[in-house]
Specification:
Keywords: Transcription, Transcription regulation. By secondary structure, the chain is α+β, with helices and mostly antiparallel strands. It contains 16 helices and eight strands.
Length: 427
């Protein structure tokens, strides 16, 4: 039997009446009663500091390096002193310049390091050749950039830039149009490996023929042919075929790289070995990914240093052919009298190309003919550029006259090499 306070028998013992336990009623808030709420407790006052002391603390305050007491004193003073408030605002803006916005992209080398760690534990059945790794990495980075694009981003305008041998040139398209361009030109490598050609699927392969200033079968001709054959502007639907093709190229290159005869890739006016063609495609993928990122106002980092070095090396090795092509077209100064007759393998005039920064190095560029041997004893000029600046020049994104380059020696040789570097670019 319960003998608690709620028991009637127990209530009678105490002379009380039978009732439920009393619950206190809710209290009315201060606001509901119309009364003024009590003032909030003020934080402890900061130390009383002189004006000159508070002024000297403004720099530390802007850097968030003051103690809590000093911060309170400075901020109280800023509410009372106009000149100090203006100075504090200028200092805060200056601090913002010291911390440029960081890219949200992952480190370009992170994917490679993760794969290397995995492969240390379990070797692949068919390893990707080291010379195909830059293309594999750059296509993966571009695919990651495109992953969350909405319809508005896919149709954002993009300005493609290159140097046509005489002056800068440009072409406007969209993000989807840029990816279509990469898909069409990557098809040159796919065709060399025996894979399907995007132009054949679109029925544009027969239309990829000569037009004014365009070489049949060249990257420009292929892209123009596909754009002409397309009935509607490119959309985000191109991402799937482009990604499948890039994966197939890497897988097939892994097999082709171990065979006795490495296939050559035709670019219309010239051919490249498969490994150089994949370096070329990695370079263009990075350049156009940067174009896309710029169009949607998104930061994009350069390739990993070892991949960047391979791209710079390919451009440096191609410079003698570019110089010779410009001379044949009458766009370059002819070689000094008798120099164009330098026998193959004989030493000729050379330019030392120094590329600074990550992925850099030094290259001796033969100036007189592609077959001449570069020789330190015949060095007539020295040209130095930052690695990314050199790549921007080779992509046609920087006019030769505006490239940030240091040089000494023969000015004509330096000028011709800068122009030949920019002439490596194309649509």
């Amino acid at each position: 039997m319960n003998d608690g306070p709620g028991n009637p028998e127990e209530s009678r013992k105490h002379g009380g009446q039978d009732r439920a336990p009393r619950v206190p009623p809710p209290r009315a808030s201060v606001e509901d009663g119309g009364r003024t709420p009590p003032p909030a407790p003020r934080p402890p006052a900061g130390p009383a500091l002189e004006h000159r002391v508070l002024m000297s603390l403004l720099g530390a305050w802007a850097l968030a390096a003051c103690s809590a007491e000093e911060t309170a004193a400075v901020e109280e003073h800023l509410g009372e002193c106009g000149p100090c408030a203006e100075e504090a605002l200028r200092l805060r803006d200056a601090v913002g310049l010291l911390h440029p916005p960081e890219s949200l992209d992952l480190d370009p080398g992170l994917r490679t390091r993760v794969l290397d760690t995995c492969l240390e534990r379990r070797s692949p059945r068919i390893p990707v050749p080291s010379w195909a790794a830059p293309y594999d990495a750059e296509t993966a980075r571009l695919d990651a950039l495109l992953q969350d694009f909405g319809d508005a981003e896919w149709h954002a305008p993009v300005r493609l830039r290159w140097f046509d041998g005489r002056e800068p040139a440009a072409r406007r398209t969209t993000v989807a149009g840029v990816l279509t361009h990469l898909w069409c030109v990557d098809g040159l490598v796919a065709s060399a490996l025996g894979l399907d050609d995007p132009l054949a699927e679109a029925g544009a392969d027969k239309d990829a023929q000569d037009s004014p200033g365009v070489v049949e079968g060249s990257p420009t001709a292929r892209t123009e042919a596909y754009w002409r054959a397309a009935r509607v502007p490119p959309t985000r639907a191109v991402r799937g075929p482009w990604r499948e093709q890039s994966h197939a190229v890497v897988r097939t290159a892994a097999f082709a790289g171990g065979s006795g005869g490495e296939p050559a890739v035709s670019y219309g006016e010239h051919t490249l070995p498969l490994r150089d063609a994949l370096l070329d495609r990695a370079f263009e993928c990075w350049v156009h990914a940067d174009d896309i990122a710029e169009a949607v106002d998104y930061p994009y980092e350069p390739p990993a240093p070892r991949h960047l070095h391979g791209m710079i090396d390919l451009a440096a090795r191609t410079l003698p052919q570019s110089l010779a092509a410009r001379r044949r077209a009458g766009l370059a100064e002819p070689a000094p009298r008798g120099r164009h007759l330098v026998a193959a393998g004989a030493p000729g005039r050379s330019l030392r190309l120094e590329i600074e920064g990550t992925g850099g190095g030094e290259w001796l560029i033969p100036l007189d003919s592609p077959g001449a041997a570069a020789s330190p004893e015949h060095e007539v000029a020295h040209l130095a550029l930052d690695g990314v600046e050199f790549c921007r020049l080779a992509a046609g994104h920087v006019p030769p006259a505006e490239a940030a380059a240091g040089h000494s020696g023969d000015r004509t040789a330096v000028r011709e090499v800068l122009l030949a570097t920019a002439s490596l670019s194309r649509l």
